[in-house]
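Objective 1b: paired records.
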Amino acid sequence: MNTVYDYQRRERLGMPEAIFCEGKDAGSLNDILQELLASPDHPTLFTRLGQAQFDTLDSRLTAHLDYDALSATGILHGALPPRPGQVAVVTAGTSDLRVAREAARTLGFMGISHTLIGDVGVAGIWRLLERIEAIRQYDVVIVAAGMDAALPTVLAGLVGKCVIGVPTSVGYGVAAGGQTALNAMLASCGQGVLVTNIDNGFGAACAALRILNTCHPV
């Protein structure tokens, strides 16, 4: 099987192609792993690789993956070299951690220094205010929030750096699997808040990298 992996993407964009695993059958993923294992100079990130799917793969191949079940990510051949810039990954609640962890794992894979700051949502806003001075020191702030998703707007009013909102599929009823959070972020009165798709921590991390590539060319 020819996977047509984009080996030149890192040279073009500063980030290699990631393998989106959800929906792929075990045979296809085993073939991809087999091909990439023969290319140690091409570190690769696997996303949306759930535990049940991971368990169906050839253990002789997955033994080479740094796998994290919470974020459903796997890393092959280690991380990229460290690069300038720092990113804060902030969550409204602990229910948002799986999405935030995907963002954090992607940042780590890309060689970006980052800190995960969890459970500082507006329902307990004093927790955010206790951390706000530290958050202001980062170049980019990624914010994962579900339900009413107010946190990115609040942070955009307190932090002058780029704020990337990640709506999560967390909440009851009218939260509608993250649709309410998405619409709330898109309708934010916070000036310049950027918004990814629902649960797309990977996309938020890649956006942060593009910003850092502009501010800190390598």
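Objective 1b, second protein:
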Amino acid sequence: MKTNCLCILAAAAWALAGTLPVQAGPLVRSDVPAEPSWVLHVDCDQLRNTAIGQFLLAEMNKPEVQAKFAAFETIFSFDPRTALRGLTLYSTGTAPEDGVLLVYADINASRLETLVKAAKDYQSTPYKQHVIHNWIDEKKKKGPDGSQPRVYAAIHGGRVVIFGQRQARVAGALDVLDKAAPSLGVSAAFPQLGASDNASFIQGLARKVDLPPSDPNAALFRLTRQTLLQVSEAQRQLNATLTLDARDEEVAAQMVTVAQGLVALMKLQTDKPESVKLAEATTIRQEGASVVGRLNLSVDEVVAMLKAGAARAAAQKASEP
């Protein structure tokens, strides 16, 4: 789901009435439909407490960036570095436009309501006891039929802001939050998601990952029935686990061969030292009908990679005419 970041923050700030604090950022299973196609959750509170999160905050507090955040906060009364608690993206469909974003944040919205209602071609539609608001997304190109894409947003209980590219998907999200539609909160499916003992700051699950045939990972994911991603940090080590569930052990064995081949190719990319380092820190093994890939890398190495990537991006930008 490709929602413009500014629209997300602005509408989130508009929609959350008052300044009541929102609960911290672990995945809330009762806020997610019972049968999602995929789910991705970022626990911003948990991330801020990690060494990697502290590095990212330090980068955002540099003078050249600080000024931009200060200007943003002045206009929108919202600083995402401190006020954002968690983000949950999910979809119950197959098209990119089916995605839904739930934003959890501590925001004073009184200043923002007028700003968002002044968005281009602002409209609103009643839905049960709620209101779904929408406006033109000026950051996106027009569709094949010449229509301009719109952003749809709603607020639920002063606790959650819902975003979508289709009004029906926002309405469906409201039904889940109203407990008028089944949710993961009353389902035994995907018990790993939102588990109380899960310290991951990123959690993701997909029933089926569709990649273009040209993607080198396509063959691997075509054999996968379900994918689970978990990322955490402990004792200055970044730990990422990707679990791919196959139909049976024989298929899993085939997937291990493919996965190990992909890692071997990464090790050969000597012109990309970060890829080599990631490959060397990755292990692949079969566990029954599942393939489990684990990445264990020191925080210092991760930070070095982030710095190198930022330096390359800055150099590229400086070279542009």
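The mean pLDDT is 82. The chain has two domains: 5-186, 208-309.
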